[in-house]
Amino acid sequence: MELNTLQTITKRTKRRLGQGHGSGRGKTAGRGTKGQKARGHISLSFEGGALSYIKRLPFRRGKGRNKAIRREPLTVRIERLNSLPKNTIVTKETLLKHNIIDVHGSQRGVKIVDGGQLQVPVTVHVPLSKSAAKKIEKAGGKVFVTP
Known about the structure:
- This protein is an alpha/beta fold.
- The chain has a domain at 74-143: CATH 3.100.10.10.
- It is built from five helices and five strands.
- The chain has helices spanning 36-39, 53-56, 92-97, 103-108, 130-138; strands at 74-77, 89-90, 110-113, 123-124, 142-143.
- The radius of gyration is 33 Å and the shape is elongated.
- The protein starts with 35 loop residues before the first helix and ends with a strand.
């Protein structure tokens, strides 16, 4: 048997402040004397009256300041379409079903770009680059989205 394994049988009560001289915590109630901390609540961001840290930081100016908001489409190289069956209609749902993109990619949007060769003729209904459109048509496929 060890002390740290014993079940606790006592419970500490919350310290009551400012209950008179006999309590040992009368008058200033354990807050020291005077000053802002003795009187009221101070926010965590308070820095003694100096200009706050947030206001001291520079603005993020310019074109790329909202990168977290902007959602660029997920790019898929054309060679990844070789895993699809012949004459498949390529949509976001088809790419998701064949594990070419994941769920997050389907939410962002998809764009097929040139990269590698395509041996399988497919019909494409998602945005794609001009060079990817040429390779799809060269392989015997069809493009129904303007590049």
